[in-house]
């Protein structure tokens, strides 16, 4: 009951103010504007109430009338009141727009942004231009509007707009020059716009503002970072001999006493380094940046919320920066903030993402996270109310799960338990697409397992959900669902494969292989590649439903233009070629079939490819088709010879790629064995090539980290050798591009 009464009183007051805004007496109108401004400042509830009453259009109308009524030839008391009305109207409209998206929309719908610009800042009104109160009020209001993503984009391509922007930046008022900087930060998005601003001399003016007031300095730093972002050309022109002093100035500002200024200066340097890594290579400067951002995490306000995101942008995909961050106890400091509990969702998300980036490449960071038991806090975050936090927690889990220690514990069963799997499976049905994609990324790592521990995930309905997501209308979800299925089926036992295939069905796999998105096609082929790896009965899956999967693979190989698709497709056929005679003949039919308007078969094109990976995959298929212990090998060799394939293989004997060269050498020995009738002594065992999923992020497959993971996998296979086929297995550690 008290709430209803308070609401009624508020409505009565609001109606009274709006009534006085319509008064014909300017003094009454001016007093009502001041009262309205005091009512709504910092009060979202009252802003909403006055919005519903139509206050914004009413104030916009008052501003329009006041601008039209200005007598530029008269400077009497009457003109002073008009000026005050313009100032108060602009202030009210700015207050509605400040941090309140509904208010911004109402202001824009009323055309108030244009009214403020024309009424307060244009040169056609010389009298008002001399009134700094009017100019400042208009500038402050427009700054509040341009802080919103809903604000209109400023067109820098129009010459008059560029001239107006320069006039703002050159204005002595900190609010006016700050408005110019805010327009740049909001609207400059393309490299063309960045170049136009640079050529117009905007950067020179912004750098001169670094020595101005706090407002000018902060606005200038933010705008400079916007013009530099992802534009190495502008950076290289700016960071030259003539502007080295400016760069040194920004570096010094990192030590400023104001936290927001330090953050903005750090962001500016990060943007410079990310755009052009050749700059800011000094270890001392990089360490200073890392320490500064970690210290800013202690700030209780917005600066502390944003510092972790800046930290992430500094270290993401940069092993040297991650190593420096680890050396200054970055993992421990981030963990200490996580332990505080009751974090603002934005801050919580940022810290989780920072940990995810720290653990993306270095085993020492992941190991430290596991030692600190960060994983428990991360798993708890999977159930957070904020979708952004849930997504960040998945990304963090995904990075940490790349740890050798994690994989070893996973195989031992201590991590592959319901504590981790249950919340991840639940997130597959999350209302947020971003959370679903992030959960799929984490699951892709969790399910890479050489033991029977996949049963937990399958028992909880994980496979059914993955298959369901592979049918999603969102290609990103389809892609990541297939990647998870691909890893789930990697080195899986026959029973596991059978369960997964029954859910997938041959018709669905065939349709996914022919998906409109090339990245989805690639993952579908990689899944089939793992499906048909292993025992001969695994090869039979590709012939289900009259061989529609094999037909789809062959069709994609003949029409695909992306090397990654061709590589996966060739490895599928290479694995099928390890099967029975009928399997090998089916592969021959696909390889020798020419596409329409093509003068040669696809395999000749692959053998001639500039991509060594594709050449390797093609030679593997030839090797498995011509294994001398197989009854029909001699006949297939004749067909390959007649198709010109054998001669192409012989011409590759000096291939620049060592892997290709070794495979070709083996193939030639195998070909010669038929001529010398020595098939019994030169029998090449069948080789199947598997595809393992990303294990989190894009990495160099030749790196020590990947080598250690691959060695662990090989060791696991040796332990289970008796359970496996007697055929030789070539392990292929295939790391696809990161989709997140």
From TrEMBL:
It comes from the Eukaryota. This is Armadillo repeat-containing protein 8.
